[in-house]
Structure formats: structure tokens, C-alpha cells
């Protein structure tokens, strides 16, 4: 799931492919056959994408080489693509309300403590594992979990929501609205004690970014999540929903900052420091669960 400031146009060449008809067919098969029954379809789909996506294979090897610290083989690439496919299908079950299909364990900060924190807060994550399990955990509590999403860039996800859970589309804050209108929408949600989730690892064309050390080499990370967080002055949490195999997910929560300080004289230095701090934690979880990385393009280009 992508935020308004987290899409890179390079992803368009390797993003999840499929016409609306194929999406509807996959949804019907998954909900009809169940998680076990749809597994053969996942195998065929993974084999197809590995065979037909040289950019995806190359990007997978490039990333896995850094996290596994050895030369990845075809089995590693298969596991990488397979984890992505499973998380994509599990998204269908979660959004359809079939929560029993997955088993989620919360690590790090107990969810009860997150629930007791006063006022709204931001959850920042990345395209690592499943964002949906984060929302699943958040929606189990008394406060809504909204998502910052550019509806223009996230048309496939919005289409999926409309088919599976139309009511959940109300939890999307449309990040295609720029400037004061967007900030006001977010502030209103925070004042209603909502938790807002967004990603911070992809950039859009024309968006401000900064080179950050990540897995041994500088990569461009967006600055807009940290600019926005600094303006909102609310607690910031990190959250990662890591797929552990089978139907098991581990959700890791940790406090990033009670609030971000952006003094005018040192604003740029502070923004870069926050982006680097996030990238360092992302690197930790990427090494912890390397097959959960779902940026299938040259991230260091």
C-alpha cells in the first residue's frame, strides 16, 4: 500500500500486472477456494512472473545479494516472488474480512500501549511485507486506522477495496490533493484520534528526495513524509508486517519519535537525519526478513 509521497515512476514498469478482469478472477478464485485451494494458482503465477520479468529477477538478485550477503540463486528469487504473491493474495482475505485466514503476532510495543496513547498518531512503514496486517491490528481497537494514499497512483488498490470492502474506502485520505487541503484533511483525522498509515520508501517524479545510506550504498528516499510529520507534530510510530511463512505474520511496532522537531536554521539537516534513521530501521527489518522486500526495481538507480 502506497502513500501519496511514496510512488516511484520506475515501479510502473514492473508493478503488479493484470487487467481488471484478471483481478476479479483472482478475487473470486481466492474467496471460493480458500487460502489452501488457491495455492496452485500462486505457484503458476510466480513461475510466470519469474519467466517473463527479467527486470524483476535482476532487481530481486540485486537486493538479496545485499541482505543475504551471498550470491542468490534461483531458489532465493523464487522465495522472494512467492512471498510477494502470498502477501498479495492474503490482502484479499484480510480486506474481505476473513481474518481467520491469517495468524498475526504483535512484536515490539504492545498494541494496548498504542491504544492508550492520547490523540492521533502517524504510522510510517515501507513496501516490506504486508501493510494490511498493520491495518488489521489497528482496526481491532477502538480507534480507526486510516491510510494516506494517492488514489490516482493507487487505482488498482482502490478497485480492490471497492470490490471487497466498499466501506473501507472511507478510511483512505486521498494524497493526490496537495498542499493545505491535504494537511487539513490529515489534521481533522488526527483530531478524531485516528491513526494514519503511510509509506516512506518510494519517491514520485518531481518529489524532493535525499540520498541515504541503505544496505551499503546510497539510495534516494523521499522527504515529504518527514516534512508532513514535522508539520503535524504528533507521535510517530514505525510498523512492519513481516510474512513468516504459512499463514503467519509478525507485526513489529516501535516508537520513532514523540514528535519531530524541524528548527528553521537546521531544517534540511534534521530532515536528512530522520530519513536516515528510518532507512536504518528499514535495513534492520529487511535483513531480518529479506524475502519480504517488494520493491521490484533498481532501488539504488
Protein architecture, described:
- With 301 residues, the chain is α/β, with parallel strands linked by helices.
- The protein has one domain (9-292).
- Helix content is 46%, strand content 19%.
- It contains 10 helices and 9 strands.
- The strands form 2 sheets. The chain has a 7-stranded mixed β-sheet with strand order 1-9-8-2-5-3-4, sandwiched between helices. Strands 6-7 form a two-stranded antiparallel sheet.
- Strand 3, helix 7 (155-164) and strand 4 form a beta-alpha-beta unit.
- Helix 1 (20-37) crosses helix 4 (74-95), helix 2 (39-52) crosses helix 4 (74-95) and helix 3 (54-68) packs across helix 4 (74-95).
- The longest helix is centred in the first third of the chain and has 22 residues, at 74-95.
- The radius of gyration is 18 Å and the shape is globular.
- Mean pLDDT is 85; it is low at 1-19.
Q: SSE layout and pairings?
A:
Elements: H1 20-37, H2 39-52, H3 54-68, H4 74-95, E1 103-108, H5 111-116, E2 121-125, H6 131-139, E3 145-149, H7 155-164, E4 172-174, H8 180-191, E5 195-199, E6 209-214, E7 217-222, H9 224-232, E8 236-245, E9 248-257, H10 267-288
Parallel strand pairs: 1-9, 2-5, 2-8, 3-4, 3-5
Antiparallel strand pairs: 6-7, 8-9
Helix pairs in contact: 1-4, 1-7, 2-4, 3-4
The SSE order reads HHHHEHEHEHEHEEEHEEH
Terminal CA distance reads: 22 Å
Rough outline: globular
Radius of gyration computed on alpha carbons: 18 Å
Mean pLDDT: 85
Question: How many structural domains?
Answer: 1
Share of residues in helices: 40-55%
Largest sheet report: 7 strands, mixed
Low-confidence stretches: 1-19
* Strands, count: 9
Proportion of beta-strand residues: 15-25%
Order of strands in the sheet with most strands: 1-9-8-2-5-3-4
Category by helix and strand content: alpha/beta
* Number of distinct helices: 10
Assembly of the depicted chains: single chain
